[in-house]
Amino acid sequence: MRFDPWNPDFVANPYEVYADLREREPVSFFEPTGQWLIATHADVNALLRDRRLGRSYAHVATDAEFGREPNPAFQEPFWRVINAGMLDVEPPVHTRLRRLVSKAFTPRMVESLRPRVRAIVEELVDAFVAKGGGDLIAEVAEPLPVTVIAEMLGIPPEDRHLLRPWSADICGMYELNPSEQAQHTAVRAADEFSAYLRELAKRPYGDDLISALAQVEGLTEDELVGTCVLLLNAGHEATVNVTGNGWWSLFRNPDQLVRLRDDPGLLPTAVEELMRYDTPLQMFERWVLEDIEVGGVEIKRGTEVGLLFGSANHDPAVFENPRELDVGRQDNPHISFGAGIHFCLGAPLARIELIESFGTLLRKAPKLELRQEPTWNSGYIIRGLSALEVTT
Questions:
Q1: Residues of the chain scoring pLDDT < 50
Q2: To 10 degrees, the CA torsion angle through 311, 315, 318, 322?
Q3: Which of 249, 251, 275, 293 is most buried, judging by how many CB atoms fall within 10 Å of its CB?
């Protein structure tokens, strides 16, 4: 099998192909998307920190100068929202936005959320166990981070059912060569979510993040909306998929599940290992802003690189026995949260959610078993299971 992000068999298990890429062609050109694929941990890690690359090139060049066609006019509502957040912009705009938002994610602020995270997950798991199981993703993995980020933002409970569908539709634009239907769906979702947030920001100020951002001097309404959309998407997509992929990994490695059940003190290392072992974000893209050389290959300005997180996290040059799941793995410099200036701002919160989620399920559902083999969503970049049916 070759690198083929639209092939369900490849999406289900890309790691054999990654091993071949690392050994034979660690820097390779993928014609269908016009990208250079970067497969080793050393190169991915270095390029994430290299300021000669960026999530955007708008601050240094026009589309024409990079030999690119402008985005279609119908996509304008989508990019107006996305480009106002910090993920797809570069300094100095990125620096200003991250500084403002990081005030809500200080270690003390995040740790103060732990009791609330624990209460939410215990309520979800109690209900799940009482009915004898079901779809672990829909009934536990999704509601937990969505509820947490919705409470942080100040989204009323009666509106929270809207968030996950909006997020999933918006994230469809980040897949490789999305279909025209997926593009229109993403635009509609971004437009609806943007309109909703603009109305929400007009309400009387309360003790929530939207209210706090609405009072920040120098933050435009577009930036407020773009930041909130980013916080929702980034605040739960990876956590949901680490939970689903992680439990599927444990079920396939029953010795490690037994080990974790016998020693819950391994939870912190287990969560890091599950993020490494079956990475939720398989690829992160960057534009090359200046000519660079990677692994002896010259990559020209104006080109895009695809940094293969899943491959980097299985690189035997960095991880001993990378194809083995080891919930007690100590030396684990995985890059599932990225690196450099775009390192995931919500990583500490994600870790709390995952530790509390896995810990509560291990404690309250000690006989959790797989009901049927799961299937994967079609997406490759944001990679996760469509459902995970279990019994308690």
A1: none
A2: 100
A3: 275
Tell me the two tokens of residue 370.
Answer: 């797989």
253-265 per-position pLDDT tens digit: 999 999 999 999 9
Write the CB contacts of 212 (distance below 8 Å, at least 6 apart in sequence). 104
pLDDT digits (tens, 9 = 90+) for 325-372: 999 999 999 999 999 999 998 899 999 999 999 999 999 999 999 999
What's the pLDDT score for residue 16?
A: 97
Q: Give me the numbers of helices (H) and strands (E) for the chain, helices first please.
A: 17, 10
Contact 335, 244 (CB under 8 A): no
CB 161 within 8 A of CB 138: no
Phi, then psi, of 313 in degrees rounded to 5:
-75, -5
Q: Scanning the structure block, which residue is given the tokens 């960026």?
A: 54
Q: Got the DSSP string for 251-299?
A: HH-HHHHHHHHH-GGGHHHHHHHHHHHT-SB-EEEEEESS-EEETTEEE
Residue 298 CB burial class (10 angstroms; 0-12, 13-18, ≥19): exposed
What's the pLDDT at 201?
A: 84
DSSP 137: I
Local structure of 389: helix, strand or coil: strand
Residue 161 carries which DSSP code? G
Q: Please answer whether residues 164 and 146 qualify as being in contact, where contact means their C-beta atoms are separated by less than 8 angstroms.
A: yes
Topology of domain 8-391, per CATH? Answer: Cytochrome p450 (1.10.630)
Domain boundaries in the chain? 8-391
CA 288 to chain centre: 22
SS3 231: helix
Residue pointed to by tokens 């005030």: 103
Separation of alpha carbons 268 and 91, rounded Å: 33
**Separation of alpha carbons 312 and 307, rounded Å:** 8
Contact 352, 235 (CB under 8 A): no
Gap between the Cα atoms of 343 and 336, Å rounded: 9
